[in-house]
Amino acid sequence: MDSVDVAILRALQNDGRIANKALAAMVGVAPSTCMERVARLRRAGVIAGFTTTVAPEAVGRTVQALLAVQVQPHSRPLVDPFVVHVLAQPETIAMHHVTGAHDFVVHVACPSTSELQRLVLDQFTARREVARVETQLIFSTWTGGPILPAGTVTAGPGGVRT
Questions:
Q1: What is the DSSP track for the chain?
Q2: Domain that holds residue 40
Q3: What tens digit of pLDDT does each residue of 20-43 get?
Q4: Can you give the CATH number for the domain in which 103 is found?
Q5: Which of the residues 60, 107, 134, 140 has the least number of beta carbons within 10 Å of its own beta carbon?
């Protein structure tokens, strides 16, 4: 991956809907070259897809929380169905299998604290394999990024040094 590929990744992570012509101008290559590079990055699995980010509060989900979940016993026959169950919940934004005192951290968004309580009681602690759930309300969120190849050093706003 060269500096043009890195610049493409940076630009697409900042605006996944940027037109190819504008992207090409931004990174300093011809539009046909840019299109081929994006296609190559997709084929290689570097670009995993394009998504739309929805603001939970804009769709009535004003209460966000992290649920730290411990399952007992921590075994594949219990973990796999648990993951399927959690991902099927419309409140689930993301789920992480982690190390430490908890086995999973689940990011959820609910319309109210009473709906969060219902989710925890009815969809988490009611399950036999769930030994413990610790709920932490989210007050604010900041996102990092963009994700660039290991060893890439940012030289300042918009500049990349590799």
A1: --HHHHHHHHHHHH-TT--HHHHHHHHTS-HHHHHHHHHHHHHTTSS--------GGGGT--EEEEEEEEESS--HHHHHHHHHHHHTSTTEEEEEE--SS-SEEEEEEESSHHHHHHIIIIIIITSTTEEEEEEEE------------TT-EEEETTEEE-
A2: 3-51
A3: 999 999 999 999 999 999 999 999
A4: 3.30.70.920
A5: 140
